[in-house]
Every structure is written in C-alpha cells, then in structure tokens.
Design goal:
There is one protein chain. The longest helix has 16 residues. By secondary structure, this protein is mainly alpha-helical. It contains 2 helices and 2 strands, in the order H-H-E-E. The chain has a two-stranded antiparallel ribbon. It is flat and about 35 Å long. The model has no long low-confidence stretch (mean pLDDT about 75). The N and C termini lie far apart (about 30 Å). It has one domain.
C-alpha cells in the first residue's frame, strides 16, 4: 500500500507560485486544483484511494460544495 503525504501550502506560497502565471488555464488546471487542496488541508484526488467522495463528487472538487 502506498502512503501519500500531503505537503501543506501556505497562502503566501500559493500566491507566490500562481501570481503572474501566464500559462493557459487548461495546461495548469489540475496542478492549480491540487495546490488549492493543499492550501486548505484537503486530500487531493490522487490521495483519495478508498473511493470515497471526500476529494471529489461527480468530478467537482469537494471544496467547491
């Protein structure tokens, strides 16, 4: 069994990483979503190995509910 460790991301780190990013939304959307999960302390979809709906629900992020 693989154990995934979440790396917390502070608000300052999140803003520093994403401010001024000129890449297209489609090319960075998954990375941005994972960083949002880490920012709020939520498991990422890749960490949700038990199939529960806590990370995503019908392909919408749990944090958007």
């Amino acid at each position: 069994m693989t154990v995934y460790r979440r790396t917390a991301l502070t608000p300052h780190e999140f803003v520093a990483k994403w401010r001024g990013d000129a890449r297209k939304e489609r090319s960075v959307s998954q990375e941005h979503f994972i960083d949002l999960c880490r920012l709020i302390g939520h498991e990422t979809p890749g960490e949700n190995r038990d199939g529960s709906l806590s990370a995503t629900r019908r392909s919408w992020p749990g944090c958007w509910r």
